[in-house]
Design goal:
mainly alpha
């Protein structure tokens, strides 16, 4: 079985998000924003896993696009948590760097999948 870098990175990212959620709820006593970042941050990996078993190339692209949107939403919640002083600028930069790396991978995967889909259409 070949390596799936984006899946591995998105799972590690989800683990970080779960730990952040626990910190926010147990230490900071923040329950609203933390739930939002938990939902979107763990959804990225779930969509990547769903894309692995997509029914068609279009379904694959669609699921990866949802993962991309979920990561964008996660970054929004992380920014809000930073600007409201629930997480430090340093904490934000650290997790945001991971988020940006994953979103770049996902974007690249989507572009490649679309290009391959267009090649297939034009060769028939």
């Amino acid at each position: 079985m070949r390596d799936n870098v984006v899946k591995d990175k998105s799972i590690l990212f989800a683990i970080r998000i779960v730990k952040l959620y626990k910190h926010l709820t147990e230490i900071k006593k923040e329950y609203v924003l933390s739930k939002q970042v938990l939902r979107s941050g763990t959804s990225v990996g779930a969509m990547v896993c769903e894309a692995e078993h997509a029914e068609s190339p279009l379904d694959f692209i669609h699921k990866m696009a949802i993962a991309q949107k979920e990561m964008n939403e996660t970054i929004y919640w992380l920014e809000l948590l930073t600007k409201t002083d629930y997480i430090s600028e340093e904490q934000f930069e650290n997790i945001n760097n991971d988020a940006l790396e994953i979103i770049k991978l996902i974007t690249s995967i989507i572009k490649t999948a679309k290009a391959n889909l267009n090649k297939t259409k034009h060769s028939n």
